[in-house]
Design brief:
This protein has two domains: 311 residues, Adenylosuccinate Synthetase, subunit A, domain 3 (Adenylosuccinate Synthetase, Chain A, domain 3, Alpha-Beta Complex); 94 residues, Adenylosuccinate Synthetase, subunit A, domain 2 (Orthogonal Bundle), CATH 1.10.300.10. Helices cover 31% and strands 20% of the residues. The protein is globular, with a radius of gyration of 22 Å.
């Protein structure tokens, strides 16, 4: 079973990096297939904590080849900043491969992202201001700059000129900002060419060959199902395909090569940025979960919005992604809560919805219908088998499993690399 996709089930920050790292010793390749440096993974190895934003978390595992796929948008300053930081800590980063077809984030993309958010005012999306959306917009508008363009200065200059012909009018006349100079943008991008050259490859071909050899390839999604451009809480979403289907388009691999689809879900829920979040907490319970779970963005440091577990959303993610397994993270954060609420359905103006309302307006006004489960007080951080968990913790997991329509194969019981309970192997 060589092709494994890992995607977020909720609104991101579920712990996908830890799940990828858990597979690390048996993984040959790890592919980032969407997004950019607008999200992050935090991986704890021993006493060391690593915060990754653009790089696949597999870069921390010896022997694994990390790949940035064609579906990613790349800020080259961030890329080389991360590589240098890891090298300084003794991590070998020489194996990294970058798709020649991946698109590049430029200075004008980040500027447009920030000024557009300010212009929208209270209607803003809550982006990270990293230029992700404008870069994807240029890609769809066929005005984007790809990694391969950096190796032909004439082509690069033509593409930058074409982009700035439009964008400088927008920046100057609408946003009252200074125009960008073509030479400045071109020179900024060309400075990375020689360092990029040994990394760039036809990554689709490399991955297809690896799968034919029976090697294990993990496809690591950024953001999550409810932030997917098509299937998330539009327009409060990211600009890429964060669901399992995006693994095929974002890496150049046929969908029939994807054998197992693993969804990552917290034992509660969090969200960053604007948009509907039915189980959101505004009381001391929310403060407690945020504090215990250290719910602050890896990339931005923003406090995350916090809520209880949402079973209809997980069922939706199971269907959209075709999940075969769930990794349930941060179960330990719920320790000590006397009664744990779980959203089992929604109430919209007196009408019960057992699944997500198809209408975004209904979803925005949905009120959670809760079922309550008895909690536990025992420390579960040393549990390594399901039977090691307190009975109430076992019952909670089994209830979530039944409501989520797929098996919960791994349970996170602490931040450490080995703080997991494995019920079913994710590879075999």
């Amino acid at each position: 079973m060589p092709g494994i996709v890992i995607v977020g089930v909720q609104w991101g920050d579920e712990g996908k990096g830890k799940a990828t790292d858990l597979l690390g010793e048996r993984t040959d390749w790890v592919v980032k297939f969407n997004g950019g440096n607008n999200a992050g993974h935090t991986v704890v190895i021993g006493d060391e904590k690593y915060a990754l934003h653009l790089l696949p978390s597999g870069i921390l595992s010896p022997g694994v080849t990390p790949v940035i796929g064609n579906g990613v948008v790349i800020d080259l300053e961030v890329l080389f900043g991360e590589l240098e930081a890891l090298s300084a800590r003794g991590i070998d980063v020489s194996r990294l491969k970058v798709s020649a077809n991946a698109h590049v984030i430029t200075q004008y993309h980040t500027t447009l992202d920030k000024v557009t958010e300010r212009f929208l005012g209270k209607r803003n999306i809550g982006t990270t201001g990293r230029g992700i959306g404008p870069a994807y917009a240029d890609k769809i508008n066929r005005m984007g700059i790809r990694i391969q363009d950096l190796f032909d200065e004439n082509i690069l200059r033509q593409k930058v000129e074409g982009a700035l012909d439009q964008k400088n009018h927008l920046l100057v006349k609408m946003f009252n900002r200074r125009a960008f100079d073509v030479d400045t943008i071109v020179e900024d991008l060309l400075q990375y060419v020689e360092r990029l050259r040994p990394m760039v490859a036809d990554t689709s071909l490399l991955l297809d060959d690896a799968l034919k050899r029976g090697e294990v390839v993990v496809f690591e999604g950024g953001q999550a199902t409810m932030l997917d451009i098509d299937h998330g809480t539009y327009p409060f979403v990211t600009s890429s395909s964060a669901t399992a289907g995006g693994a095929a388009t974002g890496s150049g691999i046929g969908p029939n090569k994807l054998d197992r689809i693993v969804g990552i879900a917290k034992a509660y829920a969090t969200r960053v940025g604007s948009g509907p979040f039915p189980t959101e907490l505004f009381d001391e319970n929310g403060d407690m979960l945020r504090s215990r779970g250290f719910e602050f963005g890896t990339t931005t440091g923003r406090p995350r919005r916090v809520g209880w577990y949402d079973a209809p959303t997980t069922r939706y993610a199971t269907r959209i992604n075709g999940l075969t397994d769930i990794v349930l993270t941060k179960l330990d954060i719920l320790t000590g809560i006397e009664r744990i609420p779980v959203c089992v359905a929604f109430d919209v103006d007196g009408v019960r919805f057992d699944e997500l309302p198809v209408n975004q307006t209904d979803y925005h006004h949905a009120k959670p219908i809760y079922e309550y489960f008895p909690g536990w007080t025992e420390d579960i951080s040393t549990a390594r088998a399901f039977e090691d968990l307190p009975q109430n913790a076992q019952d909670y997991v089994l209830a979530l499993e039944k409501m989520s329509n797929t098996r919960i194969s791994v349970i996170g019981v602490g931040p450490a690399r080995d703080a997991v309970v494995v019920r079913h192997d994710l590879v075999d």
